[in-house]
Structure formats: structure tokens, C-alpha cells
Design a protein that fits this description.
The chain is an alpha/beta fold. It has a single domain, classed as 3-Layer(aba) Sandwich (Rossmann fold). The protein has 8 helices and 7 strands. Strands 3-2-1-4-5-6-7 form a 7-stranded parallel beta sheet, sandwiched between helices. The radius of gyration is 18 Å and the shape is globular.
Length: about 260
Amino acid sequence: MEGRLTHLSRSIAGKRAIVTGAASGMGRATVHLFADEGARVAVVDLGEDRVGSVVEEIRSVHGPAAAQGWAVDVSDGGQVAHLVAEVVEAFGGLDILVNNAGISRVAGAAADDAEFDEVWAATLAVNLTAQARMVRAALQYLAAAEGGRVVNIASTEGLIATAGIPAYTASKHGVIGLTKSLAVELGRSGVTVNCVCPGPITTAMTAAIPDEVKEVYARRRVPLRRYGDPEEVAHMTLSLVLPAASFVNGAVVVVDGGMTIRH
């Protein structure tokens, strides 16, 4: 039998990855999936207990070398710089960065000035500025790796809009713009930068929405007639960091069951 005709790898075994916002939802699903696929993962989130719990889940299956945790506030530039340096020291390098940490708070245009300003500043600090800082801190290590990968998690709010959350919507539009700009700039160094836009997903961010409201929304707005699962988003993130995804750069990939095309 003749040999394989394909030569691009679909394995991330041995790759070293940072995932922010990794203690719950899509981030947790991503670190679990990456570890299942043989990568070493840096589990990054707020709260040592939450981070430690996910690390232990992974280690119980894949052993102590598979995961290590860092309790970090990604809106703090100093903590971001230390995080990346410590991960590289622990793992011996860095191949993959997934910027998943995010917050969403309600404060519409008519909100009290102090409330609006505080929500605006906090949301952009976590959702947008932190992503830029993470990439800057990681860039030299990603460029030194063979085929460095960055995936920024945005939202369908980066493509459409919902009333009452202008800070969140603006931040997610910004993530898409940041992704495109970095993809153009960093492509020459061999680092690809892509973006995933999840739609309605069952996570802590949507947990406060009553189940009956979610059901009605999904029936009316989502062609697949349901909310997505965090692992369904994680698999798209995995696809974008594969060695075989070497010519995918600056892409904005929607994972929403067809919701945005129905708006």
C-alpha cells in the first residue's frame, strides 16, 4: 500500500497552551479538550480554588504534568506579564494562546454616569485590553515556536447587537478588529491569529436566564432550536490551533447554530 497523501498534522500532542477564563464554561471545556488531545495546559482564571479544581480534574485523568494553574486577574498588566513568564518557565515554551476570559454587565446608555463609566472601563479592560496584553506578552515565545497560534474568543455581539450592554458589544467588536490587525501584523512571524464568535451557549454567563426564556429564544432565533454546549465551541477553538490550520489567519468563525444568519 502506498503511503499517506496528506502531510499536515491534526495533533496538538506536546503543545503548550495558555487558556484564560479556564475555570468554567467554554474555557474549562477548552483546557479539558486540549489535555485530552495531549497538550500541556495552563489553567488561568480568578480564584485559586476554582483554578485548582479544574487542574485536579485534568491531572486525575492525564497525570500531574498535563496541567498547571494560575490565579490571575487578566485586567492587571503586571499580572499578565508575570503569568506568561511563569508559564514559559514551567513548560519550556509556549505554542498556543487562547484569550477566553470575559465579563458581561448591564449598563445602558441611560444608566447613572458613575455606573456606566465603571462598567465600561471594567468590561473593556477584561474583554479587550487584556487580550492585547496577553498577545504582546506571549509574542516572542509564540514566534519562537513552530507555528504559534492565537485564538481570541469574541461573541456574536461582535457582529450584531443587543440593547443594554453597549460595553460588552463594543468590546466584542473590538476583539474582532484586534484579531484582524494582529493577523496581518504577526503573519510574517508565522503566528496565526483567529477569532471565535460563540452565540447562545450554556455557561455561567447565561445561567441567570430562566430555562423557559432560553427555550423560547432558541426556538425563535436559532435554526438548531437550542443553546450550544461549551464543548462545541472548544472543538472549533481546537480546529484553529491545529498544525494543519496553518493557512487560516484572521478568520472570524461563528459558532451559534445559525443564529446570526437568521437576524
